[in-house]
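Section: protein folds

Sequence with per-residue tokens
===
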Amino acid sequence: MTILVTGATGNLGRLIIAALQERGADPQSIVAGARDTAKAAELGVRAVHLDYTDPASIATALDGIDTVVLVSGSEVGQRVAQHRAVIEAAKDAGVAKFIYTSAPKATTSDLVLAPEHKATEELIAAAGLPAVILRNNWYTENYAADLARAAETGVLAAGAGEGRVASASRKDFAEAAAVVALEDGHIGQVYELGGDVAWTYSDLAAAFSEITGRPVSYRALSVDEQLAALREAGLDEGTAGFVAALDAGIRDGALADTDGTLSRLIGRPTTPLVDGLRAAL
């Protein structure tokens, strides 16, 4: 079996490659797909040029590949076209397993990020690929910048209200991808993956306090207050609106669900919030 991991030099992709090796995969069976293969040299596996915007590079990268792990692109607004190129190449190559890192409840969620993931899942289904969908909740590492800010100000300000987030560390999600890639029996499954604990932003502020050694309080902002604060911080109108919409989704429960699927897949509890934040530093 030969496994191709796309976006291999990104934060999640490189961890998936490490997890595959930690779980016994022969490094020679792993292929790192990256726009800049020089950046993949440290991963310890064969690297191939793969650019989501260059279909020819994707087709070449998939030559001889049995399993594809499509790590979703990071360019919001361009991901559907980029993912379609990989899906079409995988169909043409006749891959035996296609794994996609999606978003929580992608096909029904109101989360502002969900539509591109929903469209990608629909493309995978339409292509008839033997697929496994991994709907990853928030990465704990997403809050590293908030932690740094809180260390200076003593305040965590957000528009998430009392919404909960079932985050886990990227390493946890990467291990799940490795398990699904290496084991039989997962094709056709859609896994909703999240941390074992769904925490509030008050809990997040308490975690910040524990790590920084100074009191950190959570200030819940209204939408208007948050937009004003983001503009004052220098964000353009579109970006400010996007951030506020993300927090609104959290407030309304888009990231609150957790049923233990992630910890069952990886065979251990997910990384606790404080530990994940410390590692992110």
Remarks:
- The first strand starts at residue 3 and ends at 5.
